[in-house]
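Good morning C.,

I know you're traveling, so I'll keep this short. The sequence:
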Amino acid sequence: MKIRELMELRGIQGVQVAAALNVSNKAVSKWANGQANPSADKLPALADLLGCTIDALYGRDRPEQRDAS
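The tokens, ready to paste straight into the viewer:
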């Protein structure tokens, strides 16, 4: 997953992700380091927070290609 890259691109800290998604800082750290993946129910909120699509979380498209509609 591209979570670390997207967090850096948006200037979002792990603690902000953890608070917004109601998960531990350790969970976010594991996601960012590729040691674990977020559960499917967290993906929509994570994508919204990072300003991308769920596909972008998996590296399937670039965040700036997101449709603005």
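Safe travels,
E.
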